[in-house]
Amino acid sequence: MFKLKPLVVAILAVASVQAMAANNSADQWQSGTDNIASVDQTVAAQSNYASQNQSGNLNSAAVTQGNATSNSAYQTQIGNSNNATASQQQASNNNSSQYQSGNGNNASSDQYAAQGNSSNQTQSGANNYATTSQQNQKNSSANVTQNGTGNDSTVHQWSGEANSAGVTQNGSENHVHLDQYTGTYTSTASIYQEGSGNRNDFQQDGSGHSLTTSSIGNGNSITGNSWSTSPAGGQYGDNHSATLTQNGDDNSIALMQQGSDHSAYVDQVGNANIASLNQSGAGSAASTTQDGDGNQATVNQAGNSNELYFAQNGESNVLTADQSGNSNYVGGNSNGIDNVTDVDQVGNDNYATVHQDYGTDNLTKISQTGDLHSAHVGQGGTGNEAFVTQTSTGNNAYVHQYGNSNLATVSQN
User: Fold this and answer.
1) What gap in Å lies between CA 250 and CA 384, rounded to an integer?
2) With 289 labelled, which of 85, 105, 136, 239 sits at a CA distance of 20 to 30 A?
């Protein structure tokens, strides 16, 4: 059984008395092993302050603040296998700040039923875990920074409006799970990862959300999948926007959008990159840019007024696009070697244009079914092939190939 030092006991006693009034201040310092520090400031007051500093291993620190405004909680732990918990409930304009340095540490921040709160978590080391939960919040922010290897960050923002979440990870084999859903509106999410083997799972459900995520390194993955299946990961609702960028090797991007007026942008620079976009609804737009080797892009759009712009530079690039609905448009360019472009459109007023200028073994296939379609294919290089199939009324096809052993087939009904 652990023993508290006399100084620590005195500090805890003072803290318990001070919590009965406004503008209270509690400072706790502990060093060693298996120490416990706790502050409870839950009386209807404001501008309370709690600071906890622990150095050593297997220490525990907890701060509870509620029923007040403008409270602050600061927790610092240096060592291994430490645990820090901050809870601020039914209180506005509060700040929670947690810093941990070492391995196997755990930080948890919980803010509930308020507005204008901020949560900041910083961890340095390996195999650390940070979780932030903000529920029924408005104009609140959550920020997590992790440096090291094998760290994990989870950010939950539920049933709120105009909240922001940001996660930054530097190192290897790190993981982020970030979700904003269940009646959330106009919230923003930002994820940045630098290192090898990192992964982030995101989920946004509601209206007017924006997502910005970037991964720099090797073997990174950005996906809309998550542990949750109801609803699944990705973006659900109306008027969402997403910007996803990668720089490195073996990167993969997967994005799911459902609803109306969505927009997505993907940028990949490196080797063996794979991008997949899935949009359903009206007024969606998708843009993919890949620069490197072995890149692939697969885009599925269903609904009205969808647009797709793609550009691939490098070797062995493959693009497959499916559109169903009205007024859909597919752009192009593909430069490199062994590029393949396949476009399928079903609906009205769709037109597709593909331009592969100078490469080797490029193949373009366009199939259109509907009204007033138009197709344009341009290729340059050796061994290029073009197939265009159009059915219904008012379709136009224009194919020009320059190089060696080119083949063009156009079928119109």
Assistant:
1) 28
2) 239
Structural tokens at position 91: 């209180």
Distances 255 to 200, 202, 332, 352, 408 between C-alpha atoms, Å: 12, 9, 20, 23, 34
DSSP state string for 185-214: ES-EEEEEEEEES-EEEEEEEEES-EEEEE
Render pLDDT for 189-237 as a digit per residue (tens, 0 to 9): 999 999 887 888 888 888 888 999 998 888 788 887 544 444 456 888 7
Who's near 148: CB < 8 A, 6+ residues apart? 123, 124, 125, 126, 128, 170, 171, 174
| Distance in angstroms between the alpha carbons of the first and the last residue of the chain | 86
Number of domains in the chain: 1
Rounded to a whole number of angstroms, the CA Rg of the chain reads 27
Residue 293 lies in a domain: no
Asked whether 357 and 336 are in contact (CB, 8 A), the reply is no
* Residues 157, 141: Cα–Cα separation, whole Å: 9
In whole angstroms, give the CA distance from residue 254 to residue 265. 11
Closest CA to 156 of 94, 228, 92: 228
User: Using CA of residue 212, residue 147, residue 184, residue 92, what is the dihedral sign?
Assistant: negative
Measured CA distances, 292 to 186, 247, 267, 295 (Å): 35, 10, 11, 7
Long-range contacts of 329-334 (CB under 8 A, 24+ apart): 330/354, 331/307, 332/356, 333/357, 334/310, 334/359, 334/362
Provide the residue range defining the domain that includes 28: 1-115
Structural contact between residues 323 and 350, judged by C-beta atoms closer than 8 angstroms:
yes
| In-domain check, residue 51 | yes
Give a yes or no: residue 264 inside a domain.
Answer: no
User: Is residue 12 helix, strand or coil?
Assistant: helix
Residue 60 located in a structural domain: yes
Q: Which residues contact 342 (CB under 8 A, 6 or more apart)?
A: 319, 320, 321, 364, 365
Q: What is the pTM of this model?
A: 0.86
